[in-house]
Write a structure and sequence with these properties.
Blueprint (H helix, E strand, L loop, with lengths): L6 E6 L5 H13 L3 E6 L9 H8 L10 H6 L1 H7 L3 E7 L1 H9 L5 H7 L5 E5 L3 H5 L1 H12 L3 E2 L3 E4 L6 E5 L3 H12 L10 E6 L4 E2 L5 E2 L6 H12 L3 E6 L11 E4 L3 H11 L4 E4 L6 E3 L20 E3 L3 H6 L7 E8 L3 H12 L3 E6 L11 E2 L1 E5 L2 E4 L3 E2 H18 L1
Parallel strand pairs: 1-2, 1-3, 3-4, 4-5, 8-11, 8-13, 11-12, 13-16, 16-17
Antiparallel strand pairs: 6-7, 9-10, 14-15, 17-19, 18-21, 19-20
């Protein structure tokens, strides 16, 4: 999409990821956008206003108390004379100030004076991202309607630590900007969707559980893609290490039975997409205390009980959503098994994928799927999980439109 004529106020916070903002400026300008950069004092320790100014071909705003800057546009106009405000990188400090309405420098004053949408691309050490204070601030900003892209999982530049905290790549940020500014219709506006994602954990005792290798990447991407098309999405997520997707109401659960309850609570809905790898069985009588290893006694026998089938429950529910979509992780006979699942679970569409270990799909970044409908089938080429999600959301919108 072209961003011709779009005016972006880019707030650059102080983090090592600020070097990526230089590339972000280039990518935005390539697409025709005008970028007005605003740097915090800390940002100037990482990249220079000279480089930012040269790449953006714009004055670089840095100082709330600069007579020149305030006479030129002033922090109020700076915040208003744009189509979108992007904060990249957004530090924990900047988010904390925003969440609490502080305004002690040009960036925070402009952010407080804004009347435009804001997209935040956080970047920080994973511990800082996980800190309860940061979590509270992020939840607060999301509740205020602020959009997020990332942080992503990866290795940190400074410490080599791995975890959630890496800033989204410039092109990912550009994609999110395009989505927010696109005049494209939002075909799922006014529609409610429920998505399940991730594995479930079935307790054996308070410290042990049965789990599976699902990462939640595909389900989370679908929740986000449906929200982008305007749906009001409730994502019921099992235990995953992913950040909550932007613009989605997330309910975190552990066990299949909790997932079922959360899904049924979220009804009525127009769309249900059940992506979670729900454990088929739970331990029939999970112990309330840690099971001790007893010398001389053999290992305990685990007696399993069948878990509720959430997809089938929804597919046959009296408040059944108009469109029910299931997934089928198969290692063989993908088509035949997928079609049988469609019937058994009362779904309108089964997205079948081959999860044989050699495909690397489980936990990986890419997916290759076959769509099985009542009246036909289609295969998609191998795509990233984000692209599968975007295509599937479009498909869902089309199916609802035709129904
Ligand atoms: O039967 P199977 O587990 O292969 O079915 C996969 C589909 O059913 C997925 O959409 C999954 O989310 C859903 N499912 C469910 N509850 C279960 C088992 C599977 O919702 N207990």
């Amino acid at each position: 999409m072209s961003l011709a004529g779009k005016q972006i106020l880019l707030v650059i916070g102080g983090g090592i990821a600020a070097y990526k903002s230089l590339d972000l400026i280039r990518r935005l300008r390539e697409r025709g956008a005008c970028v007005r950069p605003l740097m915090t004092a800390a940002a100037q320790q990482f990249v220079t206003p000279l480089a930012v100014g040269a790449l953006s071909a714009s004055h670089v705003y840095t100082d709330l108390f600069s007579r020149e800057d305030e006479q030129d546009v002033g922090h109020i106009r700076l915040a208003r004379e744009c189509d979108l405000i992007v904060i990249a990188p957004a530090t924990a400090d900047l988010m904390a100030k925003m969440a609490n309405g502080l305004a002690d420098d040009l960036a925070t004053a402009a952010l407080l004076a804004r009347d435009k949408q804001v997209l935040v691309a956080p970047a920080m050490n994973p511990r800082m991202w996980e800190n309860p204070a940061t979590k509270r601030n992020v939840a607060c900003l999301k509740a205020d309607g602020i959009a997020f892209i990332g942080p992503m999982r990866g290795e940190m530049a400074e410490s080599g630590e791995a975890g959630l905290g890496r800033m989204a790549e410039p092109l990912e940020i550009v994609g999110a900007i395009e989505d927010m500014l696109s005049a494209r219709s939002r075909p799922l506006q006014g529609k409610k969707a429920i998505v399940t994602s991730g594995p479930t954990h079935e307790p054996i005792d308070p410290v042990r559980y049965i789990a599976n290798r699902s990462s939640g990447k595909q389900g989370h991407a679908i929740a986000e893609a449906l929200a982008r098309l305007g749906a009001e999405v409730t994502l019921v997520s099992g235990p995953v290490t992913l950040a909550d997707p932007a613009g989605v109401n997330v309910i975190h659960v552990e066990r299949a039975e909790d997932m079922r309850d959360a899904v049924l609570n979220a009804l009525p809905a127009d769309i249900a997409v059940m992506v979670a790898a729900v454990a088929d069985w739970r331990v029939a009588d999970a112990s309330t205390h840690k099971i001790k290893k007893q010398p001389g006694e053999g290992p305990p026998a685990l007696v399993l009980a069948e878990n509720p089938d959430i997809l089938a429950t929804v597919g046959h529910h009296q408040a059944r959503p108009r469109l029910v979509v299931g997934f089928a992780a198969e290692t063989q006979n993908v088509s035949v098994n997928g079609r049988a699942k469609l019937e058994r679970k009362g779904a309108d569409l089964i997205v079948a994928n081959d999860v044989s270990p050699e495909t690397g799909i489980m936990g990986g970044e890419r997916n290759s799927v076959r769509l099985i409908y009542r009246e036909g089938e289609e295969s998609w080429p191998e795509l990233s999980k984000a692209d599968v999600a975007a295509k599937l959301a479009e498909k869902i919108a089309a199916m609802l439109g035709n129904a």
